């Protein structure tokens, strides 16, 4: 991924570190994902009015918040009551699923468990995405790395972006969040937290996503079949693909 292209997709917003456009990625049939259509982000709870305006100037119609109800109450999205966008809180992982999906000692293992156990969450998110009026959309969670990363990976995979490119996009979170991760690491050490567990949770190596996408293909027959198993129809998925690709 070229440095100029990386700069182009980064969106600088005060109080946010991981806001990126996922347009411009080449697809296997020679096209590319649409710019100004899908924005991935970290938490928007501290986004000031100037940053809110900057997002709205991009034509954003929908904010999809993938966090749990407890997270949204504690760190309220600034668009939660907005009349200018459609705010949807669609938790990817339900509270009762949280402990079970985090049992693995690796990040890729956690992602595989989420794919296996959180189909209802993916159904809700992708049903919302399979409507043309949803776009342009911002998808976000807390850090914009894991839950957001999985949804974006499925979207790009559905659009037939190569796994290596999807993994590179995922890994950009490591660079974007580096400053914040350093602070979290210092706090974790001071608090005597399990260092191995901490490093598992902040890891955004491309290998995590490559392993997850391989699992998606081998165990679930790829993104189309997986999303159909979640309850999405072929017609909805075709509508979604048309929205994603130039």
Protein architecture, described:
The protein is an alpha/beta fold and 246 residues long. The chain is built from 13 helices and 5 strands. The protein has a 5-stranded mixed β-sheet with strand order 1-2-5-3-4, with helices on one face. Helix 5 (107-117) packs parallel to helix 11 (206-220), helix 9 (178-190) runs antiparallel to helix 10 and helix 11 packs across helix 12 (222-229). The two termini are 19 Å apart. The mean pLDDT is 95.
Element layout with pairings:
Layout: H1 3-9, E1 20-21, E2 38-41, H2 49-57, E3 62-65, H3 69-74, E4 86-89, H4 95-101, H5 107-117, H6 119-129, E5 137-140, H7 147-158, H8 163-176, H9 178-190, H10 195-202, H11 206-220, H12 222-229, H13 234-244
Parallel strand pairs: 2-5, 3-4, 3-5
Antiparallel strand pairs: 1-2
Helix pairs in contact: 5-11, 7-8, 8-11, 9-10, 11-12
């Amino acid at each position: 991924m070229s440095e100029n292209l990386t700069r182009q997709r980064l969106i600088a917003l005060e109080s946010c570190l991981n806001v990126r456009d996922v347009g411009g990625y080449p697809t296997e049939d020679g096209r590319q994902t649409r710019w100004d259509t899908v924005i991935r982000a970290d938490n928007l709870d501290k986004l000031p009015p100037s940053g809110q305006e900057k997002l709205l100037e991009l034509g954003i119609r929908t904010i999809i918040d993938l966090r749990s109800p407890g997270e949204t109450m504690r760190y309220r999205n600034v668009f939660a009551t907005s009349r200018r966008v459609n705010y949807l809180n669609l938790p990817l992982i339900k509270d009762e699923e949280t402990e079970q999906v985090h049992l693995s000692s690796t990040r890729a293992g956690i992602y595989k468990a989420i794919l296996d156990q959180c189909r209802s969450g993916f159904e809700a998110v992708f049903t919302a995405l399979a409507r043309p009026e949803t776009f342009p959309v911002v998808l976000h969670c807390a850090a914009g790395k894991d839950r957001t990363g999985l949804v974006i990976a499925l979207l790009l995979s559905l659009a037939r972006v190569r796994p290596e490119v999807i993994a590179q996009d995922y890994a950009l979170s490591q660079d974007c969040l580096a400053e914040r991760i350093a602070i979290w690491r210092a706090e974790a050490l001071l608090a005597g937290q399990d260092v191995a567990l901490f490093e598992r949770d902040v890891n955004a190596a491309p290998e995590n996503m490559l392993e997850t996408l391989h699992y998606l293909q081998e165990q679930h027959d790829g993104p189309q079949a997986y999303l159909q198993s979640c309850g999405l129809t072929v017609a909805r998925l075709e509508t979604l693909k048309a929205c994603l690709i130039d």
